[in-house]
């Protein structure tokens, strides 16, 4: 076992887990970003947008893409415009509300995305080739447990924030004993 694997983090175990997750994510992100650029002349944000447009439900709105990618609508609009300029995606206005635009892959966009996917999988396999399938499965399960716990915490926090906002605006009746 190497020093990196054996060493205890300074501070709490939670801090160590967080730092290790960030470190792994950064290494993977850097590798994928470099390969996307070299192999497909595509930036990571553009690939991320293509991937979100490709996944169901078909034709997400700009607002939905903003939520999925955790970036502002302005950032989404810029990336969409750049991908539209090279005919990888197209925007369509909502018939009922012209302010709403939906985004779709063009045929060229679908073909590019379909070429990238197997390469993307291969790159991830290369990155993780030294980790056994058993260890990957264990890690996958552990991260699922962590994700579920974090989502529950986030939902509680959002609920508390909404209740605080309602209290401030007088939208909620006081609790009775």
Name the descriptors.
177 residues, Arc Repressor Mutant, subunit A
Q: Decide which structural class fits the backbone.
A: mainly alpha
CATH class of the domain at 43-150: Mainly Alpha
Mean pLDDT: 89
How many H/I helical runs? 7
CATH topology of the domain at 43-150: Arc Repressor Mutant, subunit A
H/E element order: HHHHHEEHH
Under CATH, the homologous superfamily of the domain at 43-150 reads: Winged helix-like DNA-binding domain superfamily/Winged helix DNA-binding domain
Which segments are poorly predicted (pLDDT under 50) over 5 or more consecutive residues?
Answer: none
The tally of beta strands, per DSSP, is: 2
| Sequence of strands across the biggest β-sheet | 1-2
Q: How much β-strand is present in the residues?
A: 5-15%
Instruction: Determine Rg (CA atoms, Å).
Output: 21 Å
What distance separates the N and C termini?
58 Å
Biggest sheet record: 2 strands, antiparallel
Oligomer: single chain
Give the second-level CATH assignment, the architecture of the domain at 43-150.
Answer: Orthogonal Bundle
Describe this structure in words.
It contains seven helices and two strands; from the N terminus they run αααααββαα. With 177 residues, the chain is mainly α. The protein has a domain at 43-150: Arc Repressor Mutant, subunit A. A two-stranded antiparallel ribbon has the order 1-2. It starts with a helix and ends in a 9-residue tail after the last helix. The mean pLDDT is 89.
């Amino acid at each position: 076992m190497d020093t990196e694997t054996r060493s205890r983090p300074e501070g709490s175990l939670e801090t160590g887990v967080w730092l290790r997750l960030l470190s792994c994510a950064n290494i993977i992100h850097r590798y994928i970003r470099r390969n996307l650029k070299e192999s497909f002349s595509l930036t990571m944000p553009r690939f991320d947008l293509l991937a979100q447009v490709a996944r169901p439900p078909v034709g997400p709105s700009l607002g939905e893409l903003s939520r999925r990618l955790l970036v502002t609508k302005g950032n989404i609009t810029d990336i969409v415009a750049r991908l539209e300029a090279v005919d990888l995606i197209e925007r369509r206005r909502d018939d009922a509300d012209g302010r709403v635009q939906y985004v779709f892959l063009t045929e060229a966009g679908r073909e590019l995305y379909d070429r990238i996917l197997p390469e993307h999988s291969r790159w991830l396999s290369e990155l993780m080739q030294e980790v056994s399938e058993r260890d990957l499965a264990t890690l996958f399960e552990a991260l699922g447990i962590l994700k579920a716990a974090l989502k529950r915490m986030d939902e509680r926090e959002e609920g508390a924030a909404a209740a605080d906002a309602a209290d401030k605006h007088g939208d909620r009746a006081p609790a009775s004993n």
